[in-house]
Amino acid sequence: MEEKRLLGDFVEKSKSRQRRTKHWLIFPLVVLLGVLTIKNRLKTCPSPPNSEYLQYEGESISWERCGNLEGIPVECSRIDVPMDQFNQNNPEDKTFSIPIIRMRGQNATQNILLNPGGPGGSGISLIYHGGPQLKTLIGEGFHLVSFDPRGVNSSTPQISCYPDVATRQRLSPVRSRNIEADSPEVFAWTQNYVKTCIDTVGEHLGYVNTPQVAADMNSILDALGQKDMFYYGFSYGTIIGQTYAAMFPERSRRIIIDGVANNFEWYGEGFEGASSLVNTDAVLDGFFDECIKAGQEYCSLARLVDSKEELNDLVMSKLEELQQQPLSIYIDNTSYGLLTYDDIWYNGFFIALYSPKKWAGLAKDIYNLILGNATDSFLAYSSGAQEWSVDDTNSVVELNDGLLTGPGYWPQDRQSILDHMLLLFNASMFDAWQDKIFYQRQQWTLPKTHSFTPPKTVKTAHPILIMSTTYDPVCPIIAAHAANEAFEGSQIVEAKGYGHCTVVVPSVCVSKHLRAYLYEGKLPDGYTKCEGDSPYFTNPEKGSSYVAQKVFDNSDDREIHLAQMELALNWEFRAPHLT
Ligand SMILES: *[C@@H]1O[C@H](CO)[C@@H](O)[C@H](O)[C@H]1NC(C)=O
Ligand SMILES: *[C@@H]1O[C@H](CO)[C@@H](O)[C@H](O)[C@H]1NC(C)=O
Ligand SMILES: *[C@@H]1O[C@H](CO)[C@@H](O)[C@H](O)[C@H]1NC(C)=O
Ligand SMILES: *[C@@H]1O[C@H](CO)[C@@H](O)[C@H](O)[C@H]1NC(C)=O
Ligand SMILES: *[C@@H]1O[C@H](CO)[C@@H](O)[C@H](O)[C@H]1NC(C)=O
Do the strands 528-530 and 491-498 form a parallel or antiparallel pair, or are they unpaired? Predict the structure, then answer.
């Protein structure tokens, strides 16, 4: 049977990959209002010691080899950009240094810039950990270029509010998971946070915002000798994309935004109605529903109950137990601690909502937890198992972007901001997760250095392409509609399914629209829905990671499908550090 043969082929491939898993590194990438990690089965090679500089006609920068991904060479460079792109008198010694990475396309004459989200996501990491798969999606006609935006990770100066890692680990934790109970502490903690950011970072702090990043992308393009912007941004990367397209419409030749955040709310308009979590609970419901539909062979939890309602009740009652009494887990004298309700709810469930390929694993962990073995849950979801972010751009960019931050806008007492949140937080059971940033908005004293407000109507050089899943836990599809209204001639391609950004819903149909747009400038005629090509639950015990989930007649389609599966499985997200 055709399908069996396919399975055989790809199981082989996935086995050889799994042998390499020892070398995986988990890099924190940041995603809209949360932190994203991409785990990948790739090992990056260090660049050879005497690597030569590479130069290309028309470009004003030179490159060095900086690795090799699945046989594809990668090259790196850096540019300096003015600290303030919008001030003609910016002193020459005040700059950010932006690292750039590129994976060359065989038939390419143009570069496409990518951003993974955040704020705070590292584009360098994106290429190292998803570059070959993204290349398969985009094709050989483009050079894939990404960069660490100003302040992020290996750009310099790095925007960290703590002088060193040890200080960060000692002083950054604050409990903010219960809106009312944690309020006094978060309110007080935030006062120090704002002071230490301003003290530690200095003058550069004020210039870490999205309009500056948009201008930096032009600096990159200029260095590459390219006039037209080709851009693909995910999650917060859609804020960069929308900002760029609004500020530089004449250069916006191809702009793709995927997993769209509401640009108007981001910059402060209609902020009172902050709507990013309006579909979150629908995704949770989808988890229960799809688990029961998948059945017990694929979803462990389906062994315990027969309906999604029963499953919901079962999980909620287990969580309630944990809320009353956290569990203590002892593995050995170096590995032990508590497993709390917050751990399971935010690091387990909430993060899994971003990427359905994690659902089978979550179901298995929760199944074991309910049956009395909490070890795997502890190892995966306890606060000690979460990674530390390396910089503070995740909050700093949001604070510097939003026009409605600081004492001029918010009453300065704790009760007012708490009352505001209590009124506002009614969209989702995961609402409390946003509360820290509200105190930061209230107390952020740094003056705004930009005056960008998103225009209601933008005519770009070529219409933009908007992509979304049906139910996105943090960037609901209503934000895609808002972008659709603002950008003339734009179209939406919806990947039918759950999760954050279309990359988590493998769909060859989506990739065909992506290619038609990139290569021929073709947008679909109207609002377009694409079916996903893979089930939500694939049996983890059967090692089906890279197995084709569908038979494709066309070998290009099959290759794209496998790349999508790989991206979907490895595109992982993580909440901001809690405790
Ligand atoms: C490159 O372009 C040529 C001519 O258009 C085409 O025949 C070839 O298949 C392309 N190669 C790749 C790898 O896309
Ligand atoms: C951040 O940069 C350092 C090198 O400066 C690198 O080792 C690390 O992997 C990067 N982290 C991410 C998330 O990209
Ligand atoms: C930790 O426990 C192991 C036994 O599992 C013991 O051999 C070791 O000495 C202990 N470490 C310390 C620092 O006491
Ligand atoms: C609990 O689960 C862990 C990890 O799967 C396993 O190693 C351990 O043996 C289990 N403990 C019991 C008591 O079954
Ligand atoms: C949530 O609160 C907002 C603002 O007070 C209100 O407009 C909206 O109707 C509320 N939504 C629900 C579902 O209660």
Answer: parallel
Torsional sign, CA 91, 93, 94, 98: positive
Q: 273 alpha carbon to ligand 5 midpoint, in Å?
A: 8
Which of 333, 334, 335, 336 has most ligand 3 atoms within 8 Å of its beta carbon, as the pocket-test mutant?
A: 333
CA of 22 to the centre of ligand 3 (A): 26
Ligand 5: does its nearest atom lie under 6 Å from the Cβ of 426? Answer: yes
Instruction: State the greatest distance between any 2 C-alpha atoms of the chain, in Å, as a whole number.
Output: 69
Please give the span between the terminal C-alpha atoms of the chain, in angstroms, as a whole number. 52
Distance CA 85, CA 244 (A): 14
Distance CA 375, CA 367 (A): 12
b vs e for 141-163, b when ≥16 Cβ sit within 10 Å of the residue's Cβ? ebbbbbbbbbbbbbbbbbbbbbe
Of 551, 512, 515, 553, nearest to 530 by C-alpha is 512
* Residue 332 in contact with ligand 3 by CB distance below 6 A: yes
Complete DSSP assignment for 86-124:
T-TT--TT-EEEEEEEEE--TT-SEEEEEE--TTT--HH
> Sign of dihedral through CA atoms 92, 94, 97, 98?
negative
The best mutation among 140, 143, 555, 556 to test binding of ligand 1, ranked by most ligand atoms within 8 Å of the C-beta, falls on 140
What is the C-alpha to C-alpha distance for residues 234 and 110, in angstroms, rounded to an integer?
A: 20
pLDDT value at residue 546: 57
Neighbour-count burial of 449, counting CB atoms closer than 10 A to its CB (0-12 exposed, 13-18 middle, 19+ buried): middle
Q: What is the pLDDT of residue 573?
A: 58
Residue with tokens 């790196």: 76
How far, in Å, CA of 200 to CA of 193, rounded?
Answer: 10
376 touches ligand 4 (CB under 6 Å): yes
What does pLDDT average to in each consecutive run of 10 residues of the chain (579 residues)? Answer: 28 30 26 38 42 90 95 96 94 95 96 95 94 96 98 95 95 89 96 96 96 98 98 97 98 98 88 77 97 95 97 97 96 95 94 93 97 96 87 94 88 94 86 88 93 96 98 96 98 97 95 98 97 84 59 90 89 46
Secondary structure letter of residue 543 according to DSSP: T
Residue of 490, 486, 449 whose CA lies nearest to 467: 490
Residues 77, 62 contacting (CB under 8 angstroms): yes
Residue 315: enclosing H or E segment and its boundaries? helix 308-324
**CA nearest ligand 2 atom 5, residue:** 154
